[in-house]
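Worked example
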Amino acid sequence: MAEAYPAYEERPRRRGRKVLVTLLVLLLLLAGLLVVADRVAAGVAERAIADQVEQEIAKQQAQSAPPQVDVGGFPFLTQVLGGRYERISIVLTDVRGAVGGNAVSVPRLDVDARNVQASLDTLRSGQGDVVAETVDGTGTVTYDSLAKLLDRPGLKLGEQDGRLVVTAPVDILGQKLTVTGTADVTVAEGNKVALRFNDLDAEGLPAVPLARTLLSNFARDISVDVPLPELPFQLNVRKVEPRPEGLTVTADAKDVPLNRAA
């Protein structure tokens, strides 16, 4: 006669599997809730920091669209409790500032703040400082804005093979010619961009010394130090580079308040 013991052994195994599955489901639910809570906290902090950044920009009399703020690092809740954030990315669009009565356009300014200190109380109350250990910024100044500052009718700037190129109408010895050439672009003291047009030519230029002298004078007149609008977050310009979309400006700063306590 067959024994019935195996039938009794299967029941504990089934119960064990059910308990294990239940535990796994609970763990997944808990993990999901933690992720949701983490992202909700991140969203609250991003909005709080965005508000304070917007106020800081307004204090500097600069204009921009509302900043887009993204707080990096995961898990986020541990950063909130510690009051220190690995990385905060800030995107400012349509940044404008007045320079010599002319508007200098920066369509987009990307700011990357690292090791940001911001206590939970500061984010909650809006009182206190939000300080970044390092800040790097990259923006683009449009060629139209630069051309307006040079104040030469018909002058156009652009990029070709990584160089700043110029095209402009000019009257030399009674002849209307088109000047073309390139410029050296460097950073000048005081967050200025130095434009030096050393290689200009004009097709049909009269082969006389006076014509060449007049062309050299034109190059000297448009070789200027262009002042940039005050960049937010105490950013200092380190590099400028001609690109198809405009003159790209790279800047950085250390120990920077992303806001200032009232």
Remarks:
- The longest strand covers residues 84-99.
- The two ends are 91 Å apart (CA to CA).
- The helical segments are 5-59, 76-82, 120-125, 143-150, 209-221.
